[in-house]
Here is the input.
Amino acid sequence: MISPYLIHFIVFIAFTLLASLYFSFSSYDMLNPPEWVGLENYNKLIQDPVFWKSLKNTAYFTILFVPTQTILALILAVALNQSLKGLKFFRIAHFIPVISSWTVVLYVADAIFNPRFGLANDLLLKFGLEPQKWLNDEHLVIPVLVLVAVWKGVGYMMVIFLAGLQNVPEDLYEAAEIEGAGVIQKFRYVTVPLISGTTFLVLVLSTITTFQAFEQIYVMTGNSGDITAAGGPNNASMVLMLYLFQQGFAFLKMGYASAIAWILFIILFVITLIQVKLQKKWVHYEK
Here is the structure.
């Protein structure tokens, strides 16, 4: 009964994982058989300045994205967990970007932040401010990409928070009111502890999402789909997934790309392990 799943797991997951691990120790261009080179790919990674810059950019993207999306998703969930008219409309409106195509969303975002005819610069000019280069500015490109990514994904995290909020017993709020607690006190001492498990889930999913960021950066920083041009300006938006894709599919350095993939896996594994360890200190478990 489980043989279809086992076959799928062995062929498409286990085999590909083991193959990529072997390729990470090989020189492989997809045109010729892989040649074993040992730790050469990993030694090159250590000495590769673009790899370290992509790792730094990924960390920067994560630091901006995770808390911003988590806080905004929680605020929206609390606001949309009230008894208000038109509640379903607002919930759907916030979730529409989640189900929209990344390509469509990013082309619209590119039109907004285009330095020549974008809406963002038009608004700045109306307020007497200097227009910005946005995606062509090394200091602004990551924040702009984070802004678009948050707008695209916050609705999904909002729904997760909504599920957690609806599981908080109403009698706890009533007891808090009897004790004289206000709105802020109820949120701090009742809501936050009881949705800590949901918050932990959102943090883990958001972190994984940032390390897998690729499509929005490829579309918004690439030049007419040129994968080698993406990640600019001056590699300021080069992240690990984009660098992996460039090395593997643009330059046919599949062995080197596999090494990057395994480094990425190790980083995500360590971060998730730390998060799991820390959750025991701040996640509330109902007894």
